[in-house]
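Quick note —
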Amino acid sequence: MTQFDLKGMDKAIERIKALPSDVRKKVVMGALRKSATLVVKAAKANAMRLDDPATGRKIASNIQARFGSKTYKATGDVMYRIGVANHKGAIPKGNPDEGDKGPTPHWRLLELGTEKMRARPFMLPALTDNIDAAVSTFAAEATKRLDKLT
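Predicted structure written out below.
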């Protein structure tokens, strides 16, 4: 698990905590969304290197950030999950390789590897390589949003 410290965020965190909960949510959600977008772009770029150009199944097209509404309802914590969309439901008719949004269940095999294939991770490096940029983006965006309020 990746761990890091938020240094230099003490003033911004105190300002955020002083806000009413509905305003606090808007500030944090917007800032967190911006930093999550940065990681999504990096994951898409990493996945593009692994996608097979001969097929229409593009892992990069299915990478997205989603708001963790269950976590927010349960704890009040704002969270975004970044991952490869899992298309549930009926299997698409016709050739799943037509178009670029075909189902990509094989992403797990690439990310984690198998006993016969080494792992070629693209999601984890997207976060670890961009964690400093994501944190600084969050800090800058949160400060900008807080300055607009005052």
